[in-house]
């Protein structure tokens, strides 16, 4: 037996021992990644060591593809010369990457959207201001820039790529995000629908449904390294919105089985939590919980550095799961998930019942009931109507805080029974104001309880401190994390604005319009300054894009474009209202 094989067996045995000793701390499942991803993480680590931190983007290296089969390239990589501390000389690493790896830009190729029209008939009829209309048409034209299809060579040899071989054309967010992302796609679709791009929107949904068919849930994004987590579940909402504009029952029929699978994913196993309210009634709610306990491959070197301050492998693995679970939430990262808001290593996502996830699931259940009724599946519709009623009751029992007028995240402590049933206590509600506290407004009947009035929620939002000159801040904590103050993100702006509109209260509609005007102005002025749409904005001042987090602020940008177009479709822009700050 060769020395290399003996060493591999020894290493695997040691890892199994470590896994066993860590089970008392980290009990969750792990979905293994692919050998290709594991190898590209090694390239990523070598590249950081060789090239240094300046301008380094860890994701780039796990997005690369192979020019030859994996075993030959691994052999060539292992033969690279190494000097002090295993560092590969720059010229040698340059030559290796140039010879054996290909840029991610070659894997998704440009494709003209089949249904793009420069100025669609009936486009944004409420926009009367010529300056705003010209900008809206430029934003609409960005769908052409962001339209891609998976290259033929990826479809022919998918084993050489971390990119997943989706069959239909896609709209990517932009910049470093060169693949489809789950919850981004909802707001992209809202923008596509405003521009009458119905076939492109349906193609995106069909791609996401194919991921459920393959994995049982929609992945965070269309990469092999995202197979161990999802993102906020909004696929049913996409299908409802497309149906409402197209009447496509065939899409509903084809998608419904996948929606049932996705609903099961979020309401079973590690995602499901049973909690007993103050009156002794049990409720089922859900949490984010990634099936992974190692550094996220797309940020492997970053996560490893974050965890380096922890004393042992077990605590590191626990942190890695919490970081991946925060990424599943879409809020990566935020003090919302931390027991100590200034310390990322205290991230505890799996110990939190999140308001927004359960509001998304309530909407999913209502949407599935609606879609099932459309195609004559009355028993499915009845089941999900009842499920929605139960979740609505749970949301109001567990999350609602009458004193604050908000729904609050709930921190889980050790359960009091052998059946893992948690007992509700007021002190475990997180009393901090987050934008996510207002997501239940987005679902129908969120204020149907006699004790919960839309007026109270509106007043709470206005006095929370979250409402800033250019939109809604995500939190009130300025930690340097990108989902904290002073950043505002497009999806939460839209959810809250649309939720306020759905309430039917005039005071709520007035507030919704005010927030929309602030958000549209900052998007417009920033676009004029930079020539680009940005993924997030600094809401403390008009005309500034956001910052913070583990990468530079990105441009493009899928959901930003979609939210702008959706808001202009809803509110329009009068001729005499100025768009500048």
TrEMBL record:
The protein's matches in Pfam families, at most eight in alphabetical order, are given as:
Trehalase
Record keyword Hydrolase present: yes
The record, for InterPro entries, names:
6-hairpin_glycosidase_sf, 6hp_glycosidase-like_sf, Glyco_hydro_37, Glyco_hydro_37_CS
Catalytic class of the enzyme: hydrolase
Domain of life here? Answer: Eukaryota
EC number(s) from the headed UniProt entry? 3.2.1.28
Task: State one molecular function term (GO).
Answer: alpha,alpha-trehalase activity
Which keywords does this chain's UniProt record carry? Glycosidase, Hydrolase
Q: Does the keyword ATP-binding apply?
A: no
Show the PROSITE patterns listed in the entry: TREHALASE_2 (PS00928)
Question: What reaction does this catalyse?
Answer: alpha,alpha-trehalose + H2O = alpha-D-glucose + beta-D-glucose
Family annotation (PANTHER family) = TREHALASE (PTHR23403:SF1)
Q: Which family does it belong to?
A: Belongs to the glycosyl hydrolase 37 family.
Name of the featured protein: Trehalase
């Amino acid at each position: 037996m060769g020395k290399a094989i003996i060493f591999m067996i020894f290493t695997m045995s040691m890892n199994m021992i470590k896994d066993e000793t860590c089970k008392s701390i980290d009990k969750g499942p792990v979905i293994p990644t692919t050998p290709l991803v594991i190898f590209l993480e090694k390239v990523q680590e070598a590249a950081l060591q060789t090239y240094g931190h300046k301008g380094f983007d860890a994701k780039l290296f796990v997005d690369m593809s192979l020019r030859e089969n994996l075993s030959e390239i691994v052999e060539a990589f292992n033969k690279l010369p190494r000097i002090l501390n295993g560092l590969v000389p720059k010229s040698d690493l340059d030559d290796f990457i140039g010879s054996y790896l290909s840029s991610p830009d070659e894997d998704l190729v440009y494709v003209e959207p089949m249904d793009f029209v420069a100025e669609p008939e009936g486009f944004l009829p409420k926009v009367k201001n010529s300056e705003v209309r010209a900008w809206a048409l430029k934003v609409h034209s960005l769908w052409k820039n962001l339209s891609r299809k998976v290259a033929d060579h990826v479809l022919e040899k998918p084993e050489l790529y971390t990119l997943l071989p989706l069959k239909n054309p896609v709209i990517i967010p932009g910049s470093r995000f060169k693949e489809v992302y789950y919850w981004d796609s909802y707001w992209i679709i809202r923008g596509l629908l405003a521009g009458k791009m119905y076939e492109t929107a349906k193609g995106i949904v069909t791609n996401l449904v194919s991921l459920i068919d393959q994995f049982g849930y929609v992945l965070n994004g269309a990469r092999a390294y995202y197979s161990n987590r999802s993102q906020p579940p909004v696929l049913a909402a996409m299908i409802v919105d497309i149906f409402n504009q197209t009447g496509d029952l065939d899409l509903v029929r084809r998608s419904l089985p996948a929606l049932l699978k996705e609903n099961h994913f979020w309401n079973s196993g590690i995602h499901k939590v049973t909690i007993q309210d103050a009156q002794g009634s049990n409720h089922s709610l859900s949490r984010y919980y990634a099936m992974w306990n190692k550094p996220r491959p797309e940020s492997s070197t970053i996560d490893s550095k974050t965890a380096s301050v922890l004393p042992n492998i077990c605590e590191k693995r626990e942190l890695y799961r919490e970081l991946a679970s925060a990424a599943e939430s879409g809020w990566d990262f935020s003090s919302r998930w931390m027991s100590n808001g200034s310390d990322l290593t205290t991230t505890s996502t799996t110990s939190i019942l999140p308001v927004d996830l359960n509001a998304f699931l309530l909407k999913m259940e209502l949407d599935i009931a609606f879609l099932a009724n459309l195609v004559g599946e009355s028993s499915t519709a009845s089941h999900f109507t009842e499920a929605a009623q139960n979740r609505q009751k749970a949301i109001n029992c567990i999350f609602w805080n009458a004193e604050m007028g908000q729904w609050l995240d709930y921190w889980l402590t050790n359960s009091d029974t052998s059946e893992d049933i948690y007992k509700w206590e007021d002190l475990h509600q997180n009393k901090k104001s987050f934008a996510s506290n207002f997501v239940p407004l987005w679902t129908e009947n969120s204020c149907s309880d006699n004790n919960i009035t839309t007026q109270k929620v509106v007043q709470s939002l206005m006095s929370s401190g979250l409402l800033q000159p250019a939109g809604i801040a995500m939190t009130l904590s300025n930690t340097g994390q990108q989902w904290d103050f002073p950043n505002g993100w497009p999806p939460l702006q839209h959810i809250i604005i649309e939720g306020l509109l759905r309430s039917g209260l005039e005071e709520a509609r007035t507030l919704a319009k005010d927030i929309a005007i602030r958000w549209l102005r900052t998007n417009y002025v920033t676009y004029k300054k930079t020539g680009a749409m940005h993924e997030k904005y600094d809401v403390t001042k008009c005309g500034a894009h956001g910052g913070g987090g583990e990468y530079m602020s990105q441009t493009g940008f899928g959901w930003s474009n979609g939210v702008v177009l959706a808001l202009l479709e809803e509110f329009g822009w009068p001729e005499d209202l100025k768009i500048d700050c």
